[in-house]
Write a structure and sequence with these properties.
17 strands; 8 helices; five-stranded parallel β-sheet; Rossmann fold; 309 residues; Elongation Factor Tu (Ef-tu), domain 3; binds guanosine-5'-triphosphate; binds magnesium ion; alpha/beta
Amino acid sequence: MAAFRLGDVHVNLVDTPGHPDFIAEVERVLHILDGGVLVVSAVEGVQPQTRILMRALRRLAVPTLLFANKIDRPGASAEGTLRAIGQRLTDRAVRMTETSALGGQNATAAALGPVAAPFARELTDVLSRSDDRVLEEYVGHNGHVPYGRLRQALAEQTRRGLVHPVFFGSARTGAGISDLMAAMAELLPLSAGPSAGPFAGTVFKVERDQRGGKIADVRVFSGSLRTHGRVRTGDGTEGKISSIAVFQPGAIKRQAAAGAGNIAKVGTSPPCGSARCLASPRPPALSITSHRPPSSPWWLRSGRRTSGT
Ligand SMILES: Nc1nc2c(ncn2[C@@H]2O[C@H](COP(=O)(O)OP(=O)(O)OP(=O)(O)O)[C@@H](O)[C@H]2O)c(=O)[nH]1
Ligand SMILES: [Mg+2]
């Protein structure tokens, strides 16, 4: 897990294993996400576990970007990867970056934009499949929907899980990474639960701390948790919160409280034994906002990252 900032957006990243043996554990994490980045290899393409993860993300309606990694590696192919994505993952993928010099250290990936006419056509084509208004505007504007309008429809449909933007790049050389990160802020939903009011959160993992005590990893959707506050720690058992540490950029910080949007490591007495502790499910009405004003704080992608590079 890690936290970082993208402008005024606070991002909590939860990395999950791509191996199918861990799928049950991964699914528990998928429930707490606001959005996902499914990583595939631009060399190996779509692997069986990638399909399992994509199915789970779609079933749970997690808005998901696709990242085709390793464009620096010999054998990397943008066309091959896009074909595999189209055939084996989704027919609603839309390519967001152009690439050059694939297969070597100098491989580049750059965001497509308004000057790329085929890109605008592809966006129009994919977006109009789920939104008749885009088609109407296409006809009304003689085949040229304004780029800003396409981008807005792209964000809207990505947040509803109707399209999956595809980015290329290399974690090794850094190519394409800034475009992927910018897209996380632009296209994935922000969570906007209030910090006032009753607590709602989910324990998505329970692990041992250095002293052998149990620590619960909690995503707070709304309200807050405070040290010494009373909580339910299991099947009806009442307990007390003994410690809270919140993921902040660069560090996990001990804090007196964790509020909406935080991911926190929470110690309780008696210990939180299972994911049912602190039981208070994600409130559906608060889970995702479908619309993000450009400069409002957003919390997360709580890790929308899954899968096998
Ligand atoms: N050439 C190249 N190698 C990469 C790149 N990204 C990751 N790798 C290598 O790929 C291997 C797997 O990387 P990981 O980051 O462990 O992949 P992962 O998807 O997290 O794997 P799991 O957690 O096991 O699912 C490592 O040897 C990395 O060094 C890349 O962009 N280019
Ligand atoms: Mg990994």
